[in-house]
Specification:
- InterPro entries: Coa3, Coa3_CC.
- It is a single chain.
- The chain is built from one helix and no strands.
- The chain is mostly helical.
- It has one domain.
- The longest helix is centred in the middle third of the chain and has 77 residues.
Length: 104
């Protein structure tokens, strides 16, 4: 009996087969192939979940850094406004003194 011919450009180990239609496979070989395919799907799912987890962690990190950055910016603005208010009070006091000295 002649061996089945390989399609041109495909090696025997790279040829995809359908276990249901492939003659000569024992039930144990079919179970093993199904088990290997399940394991491959499971690994692919784990890689996908891992990449999603990395993206989620990066997103949480960016949001956290943004909150901290905004907080530091707000605090520095408050200090600036406090200093500005102190300068305005000093200027009002000087103006009041000048007004009092000019009136007398």
């Amino acid at each position: 009996m002649a061996a089945p011919r390989e399609p041109v450009g495909e090696a025997a180990f790279a040829r995809r087969i359908d276990p249901e239609r492939e003659p000569g496979l024992s039930p144990e070989q079919r179970r093993f192939m199904a088990q290997v395919e399940r394991a491959q799907r499971q690994r692919a799912l784990q890689r996908q979940l891992r990449s999603r987890n990395v993206l989620l962690a990066l997103g949480i990190g960016v949001v956290t850094a943004g909150i901290y950055g905004y907080t530091f910016y707000s605090v520095s603005q408050e200090q600036f406004l406090d200093e500005l208010e102190q300068e305005a009070e000093a200027a009002r006091a000087r103006a009041w003194e000048r007004q009092k000295s000019a009136a007398s």
